[in-house]
């Protein structure tokens, strides 16, 4: 749906709305990138702690 909006529907808007839509898209992309960078380390640490837990390791 978002791809359709920016591939087709944006070009049907007037100039001010088009500019606002691309600015909003840029802000959303920056925010999601920032959020991913913050959560990436947290998730990695959680996975590493889970792997170190001896209860989760197979014992043969």
Describe the structure.
With 60 residues, this protein is mainly α. The longest helix has 38 residues. The model has no long low-confidence stretch (mean pLDDT 82).
User: What is the tally of helical segments?
Assistant: 2
Give the helix proportion (percent range). Answer: over 70%
Can you count the beta strands? 0
Radius of gyration: 21 Å
Explain briefly what this protein structure is.
With 60 residues, the chain is mainly α. Helices cover 73% and strands 0% of the residues.
Descriptive tags:
single chain; 60 residues; mainly alpha; 2 helices; 73% helix; elongated
Helices, strands, pairings?
Layout: H1 2-7, H2 15-52
């Amino acid at each position: 749906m978002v791809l359709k909006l920016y591939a087709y529907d944006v070009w049907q808007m007037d100039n001010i709305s088009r500019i606002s839509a691309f600015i909003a898209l840029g802000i959303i992309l920056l925010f999601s990138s920032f959020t991913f960078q913050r959560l990436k380390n947290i998730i990695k640490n959680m996975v590493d702690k889970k792997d170190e837990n001896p209860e989760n390791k197979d014992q043969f």
